[in-house]
Structure formats: C-alpha cells, structure tokens
UniProtKB/TrEMBL annotation:
The protein's name: Uncharacterized protein
PANTHER family per UniProt: BCAS2 PROTEIN, PRE-MRNA-SPLICING FACTOR SPF27
Main location: nucleus
UniProt source species: Chaetoceros tenuissimus
Family that this chain belongs to: Belongs to the SPF27 family.
Keyword field: Coiled coil, mRNA processing, mRNA splicing, Nucleus, Spliceosome
Ranges in a coiled coil: 137-197
Pfam families, A to Z: BCAS2 (PF05700)
Any one of the GO CC terms: Prp19 complex
C-alpha cells in the first residue's frame, strides 16, 4: 500500500532586508519632497455653476439637506403635460429638421467626393479659355505686324517714286544750267569779238 507524499524540490527563499533600509528610504523621500513646491490651495471647494443658476440652487439645497434625498417628490408628469396636437406638430417639425439635416449631410458628402473632379474640370476650362485667348492675341499681333509692314512698304514705294521725280527734276535743272552757262560763255566770247572788231575799225 502506497502513501501520498509531497515532494518539495525547491530551496527555501528568505528575503533579507537591512533593518535601516526603511529609514533610509524615508529620508530620501523627505529630501525629494523638500525640493518640490507645494501646490496652491484651492480658492474654494464649492463648485461653480456659471452656466446654470438652477444647478447652483440645487447644490445649495443639497448641502442644506446634508446630502439626503428630498422629502417631497415632484410629479413631472403633471408639470410637463403636452397637448397631443402640439406633440404631433413638434414631431412633424423634428422630422422636417431631421430630413433637412440628412439632405445637408448627403450634399456635404457628395461635395467632398466630387469637389476635386469639379475643380479639375473648372481648371481645365480656364486653361482652355486662356489658350484660346492667347491664340487670338498672337493672331491679332501678327495682323498688326503685317499691317505695319504693308504700310512701311507702301510708304517706301511712294518715297522712291517721289525721290525719282525729284532726281529727274534735279538732273533736268542741272542740264539747263549747263546750257545757260554755255550760252553765257558764247555770248561773252561774241561780245569780246565784236569789241575787238570795233576797235580795229576805229583805229
């Protein structure tokens, strides 16, 4: 017959702590706390209810009751009685507002989804319009340059014709002047000859 035996194969463990360790640790904590600044005390432990005066009144009454429940119960069903017609109108109004909000949300989602493509299309139209305007501008500049070139050529032709006329007139005047000079020289020679002949006759 076998007996149940417990076999312990682990060594006993004893955590040896120095007797002065706790005092040493406390001294370190005290030194650390001396270097820390003490927090400012709260100005008032009473909470502030700036947004609602009802909460402030309820808190004051709760303090006066020392945290106990109200002795008088309030029947809110008697206070907040709603006419069924008004209730239906309110529900209908809320449904309209809810549907309006739903449609607005759908529009925002659609705008967020398609706004980038819409802007790309708009930018493409602007670029196309800009390109067309630039093409028209270049065509107009070319037309202006052609008009100026034609005008310059026409002016040069007229100037050449006028210069030709003036040159011909100048040459004609020069020839006439030469003929006059020759005539004057011939007359002077003839006068000298006549003078010489008349002098010889007198002698």
């Amino acid at each position: 017959m076998q007996t149940n035996q417990v076999v312990l194969d682990s060594l006993p463990y004893i955590d040896q702590v120095h007797p002065d360790y706790e005092a040493y640790a406390m001294s370190l904590i005290e030194e650390e706390m001396k270097t820390m600044e003490a927090p400012d005390p709260p100005s008032s432990s009473e909470p502030k209810f700036n947004s609602s005066s009802i909460n402030h009144v309820e808190y004051q009454q709760l303090v006066e009751r020392n945290g106990e429940a109200r002795s008088d119960t309030v029947d809110f069903t008697k206070i907040h009685t709603v006419d069924p017609k008004d209730k239906k109108k309110a529900i209908h109004s809320f449904k309209i507002q809810l549907e309006h909000e739903r449609i607005r949300q759908v529009n925002l989602e659609l705008e967020g989804e398609f706004s980038s493509s819409i802007w790309k299309h708009h930018v493409g139209l602007l670029e196309k319009s800009t390109s067309e305007v630039e093409t028209q501008l270049q065509q107009q500049l070319m037309q202006v340059d052609q008009i100026n070139a034609n005008r310059k050529e026409s002016q040069e032709k007229r100037a050449m014709v006028e210069l030709g006329k003036l040159g011909y007139r100048y040459e004609e005047l020069v020839r006439k002047n030469q003929h006059l000079n020759k005539g004057i020289v011939a007359l002077e020679n003839e006068v000298e000859t006549l003078r010489a002949q008349s002098g010889s006759v007198v002698n």
